[in-house]
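Following up on my earlier thread - several people asked me to post the actual chain instead of describing it. Fair enough. Here it is, all 381 residues.
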Amino acid sequence: MVIKVLVRFLTVVLLAHSFVVFSVTVSPPLAQAQTALRVAYLIPGSNKEPFWLSAASFAQAAADDLGFILEVHYAFNDGRKLLEIGKDVANRPKDKPNYIIFHNYEGAAPYIMNEIERNNLYGFVVGTGLSENVRQTVKGPREKFKSWLGEIKVDNVGGGNMLAKLLFRAAFERGLTSASGRYTMALVNGSAGDSAAQDRQEGAILASKEYYRGEIISRSIADWSRIKARAIAARAFEKNPTTPMYWVANDLMALGILDTFERTRRIPGQDTLIGCFNWSPWALQAVANNQIEYVLGGHFIHAGAALVMLFDHSRGTDFRDKGLSQVARYGLVTKTNVKAVYQRMIKNDYSSIDFRKFSRVLNPNWQDYSFDALTYLSEVR
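Reply from S.P.:
Thanks for posting it. Predicted structure:
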């Protein structure tokens, strides 16, 4: 019900009529550049979820290197709460952040932009991009909202498509079909109201149409929960016990599915293939143990990568020439590279990365910004 209310609330009609846009000049806060600038990072998830803990830790390491004061706020998977946090942070009477980094969770981004614009702050979006309908009204960075400096969008459709294709290809190569003789897949998604989740699902559906005898036989919502995924997998197994593939939207839900298969005769990695998103230590360990075939991830770095761009902006070097809307692709972990990635992520400590080398201000030889997790992780010692 909350999601439905929020979706009705975040409509294009309201977008077209409710935003009061204030004119601001998009210039770096050079007068403050000699003192530490404050950045607020608004995380839509929970401080109990490994992915968001990695995102916060990575952003903190970047902030420490670049001299930012970073504050992190969690919305606990509640779009309304994310919007409330954005309003509170932008409108507080003192210690306002110079920059706010935030996600477009459940369509909250344009409303947070409005608060940022009203308060003459700067905003940067990471993760899921705006929907096409909303973008028709809001346009791109520095158009309707001059203080919306830029965005790093994840190619969620491409990621969902890639994971499904990898699973279909592996099933085809190993001859893993269901009792019907088709290459069937169960799809376990995270949220009905999250556009990132829906885009990934769209990509998987497109992949199923490209494969001969490929078919998605079930689509379920487990709310990013291991417990709910366990129950969903139990029901799916009871209905279709020979389904050879499970496409899963995050690591915790994949672990819930593995829990279920411990009580069946199915053997993940042999007669059942599982692919998921998010490079958590236990998902990577499951890859090493031949329980999960593929894990797509690395998108936890994007707030940290945005901080590098904002550092340059604050020092008078705008990133406009490199593009205001960057599209980042998921990194892939398989058995071939899991050991290296696992060793660099297990401690969730990114303080050994020298983020200054990725800055065009501090490293004039560096020509382009990086949004590739493996590039950054190669610096972890």
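DSSP finds 14 helices and twelve strands in the chain. That should answer part of your original question.
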